[in-house]
Design a protein that fits this description.
Elements (H helix, E strand, L loop, with lengths): L8 E3 L3 H11 L3 E6 L4 E6 L2 E6 L15 E5 L3 H8 L4 E9 L3 E7 L5 E7 L4
Parallel strand pairs: 1-4, 5-8
Antiparallel strand pairs: 2-3, 3-4, 6-7, 7-8
Length: about 120
């Protein structure tokens, strides 16, 4: 057996607004959507995520996540220029001693999204 992928399911109270953020700001494509289920599947290159409204199957109090979603990109400068003025910035683009040039923004639900590209460390 081998694991062949991971598709996070993010909860949102505003499905259409969240689809808009991921499509219009980040460049994802809406692959499938069901208003009846309150669910959608989005794709950007090889990255897939799903969005869903909270439902009766899982206890729900509020939108929240205790981590971040870290996207590895091949041109972090291009991604930064594309999104920094369209989203709330957590921290701007900078180089880190662990060999990554990265930045972080928040989506419309408050989830932190980090974007990084490997760099050489001297």
């Amino acid at each position: 057996m081998k694991v062949t992928g991971l598709r996070p399911m993010l909860w949102t109270e505003d499905l259409d607004g969240t689809i808009g953020f991921y499509v219009d700001v980040l460049g994802f494509t809406c692959v499938e959507k069901s208003d009846d289920w309150g669910w959608t599947s989005l794709r950007l290159d090889q990255v897939w995520i799903m969005l869903a409204k909270p439902n009766e199957h899982t206890p729900y109090e509020k939108i929240g996540f205790t981590g971040t979603f870290y996207y590895t990109v091949d041109d972090v400068e291009e991604m930064w220029s594309k999104v920094h003025d369209k989203a709330s910035v957590c921290y701007g683009i900078e180089d880190f001693e662990w060999g990554m040039r990265e930045f972080a923004i928040f989506d419309n639900n408050g989830y932190m999204l980090q974007f990084g590209q490997e760099i050489e460390v001297n």
